[in-house]
Fold this sequence. Notes:
By secondary structure, the protein is of the alpha/beta class. The protein has 2 domains: 28-143 and 304-361, D-Maltodextrin-Binding Protein, domain 2, CATH 3.40.190; 146-301 and 378-414, D-Maltodextrin-Binding Protein, domain 2, CATH 3.40.190. It has 18 helices and 13 strands. Strands 2-1-3-12-6 form a 5-stranded mixed sheet, sandwiched between helices. Strands 8-9-7-10 form a 4-stranded mixed sheet. The chain has a two-stranded antiparallel sheet with strand order 4-5. A hairpin with a 2-residue loop joins strand 4 and strand 5. It is globular, with a radius of gyration of 25 Å.
Amino acid sequence: MTRISxxxxxxxxxxxxxxxxxxxxPSASAxxxxxxxxxxxxxxxxxxxxxxxxxxxxxxxxxxxFNVFDxxxxxxSVRNFLSSQAPDVITWFAGNRMKAFVDRGLLEDVSDVWDxxxxxxxxxxxxxxxxxxxxxxxxPWSYYQxxxxxxxxxxxxxxxxxxxxxxxxxxxNAKLKEGGVTPIAIGTKYxxxxxxWFDYLNMRINGLPFHLELTDGKVPYTDDRVRAVFAKWxxxxxxxxxxxxxxxxxxxxxxxxVFQGKAAMYLIGNxxxxxxxxxxxxxxxxxxxPVINPDVPMFEDAPIDTVHIxxxxxxxxxxxxxxxxxxxxxxxxxxxxxxxxxxPNKDAAVKDDRFLKAGFEMxxxxxxxxxxxxxxxxxxxxxxxxxxxxxxxxxxxRLDRILTRLEKSRQRIFKQ
Length: 416
């Protein structure tokens, strides 16, 4: 051994001894976990703070840095978070909102978290919304149902029951109208409520895979299958089943028609429930959007809130532990009790609320979930699309020019 070799060997031995005495540097799993969340509203903030305290109690070797941002400001800042100085975990949304970042390579594939924790069995209805090209890119922690909220007392007075098929639905609408009650309340002043009708008609007629292909820009809006959706929609418009002058009302401004008994039904999300006046709360009920094509599975709109690992995160090992922790049934039970919403994990417990329980049963049995039109498609396409939906509801004879306009926008936006 040369003099230089002996000196290197001595230095190597000394270094090994020093490491043995001082201890190894902390590993990635025992580092700092940075979480950026757009959960500034009181209930989400509380739910996450309590979740993190439970996580720290089970993982005392992990230091957690929790950064809370204003909900709207976070939507703008998240792109910067993902592109530079990425945190280890972010809150976000499923559907196209997630896909936009996956397509840019900004979110980590976490299929291993799903596989290791049996999440495909625990959260089957959320799987499609979290999957792109067969891989999962996040974990859902909360969602809520859409469906038809209705005045059961009005139904009972006219001898009606909640419809399960399209024919039954149309018959109920006709009976309500004969009784002097507007069948369906809706306010389309701010457009998005019309998107709910398009979503459900398309999913019930053509199914969720087709719906997602359309919202992803892969199907022409002039396709005959899309025209079939508007044909079914027009049956209701021509029969006068919707609230008159709905384009002048916001969704909140349309509520009193139901509360005052002037309208019987409202297709809306579960966020509608807290608005019920005490005197009519017990008179309200809920049913699933009816079957149109019995060969098409029952898919639902259920906007999902999610957590993800940025592709440029530094501490992905602990981030994976956190995502697995978020997915657990006990943690989803606790979080959604605070939120008064639904846990995606089917083994979680639901707050003792009849609307939440009905939604939980419906969504847990669903074959797949959409996120809502404006979350499932490009933001610019969503705006143009929902303008078209509202215009169609007011002027259905303009359908051809509306679809032509939507198709031109699709080709430009998606460059197809």
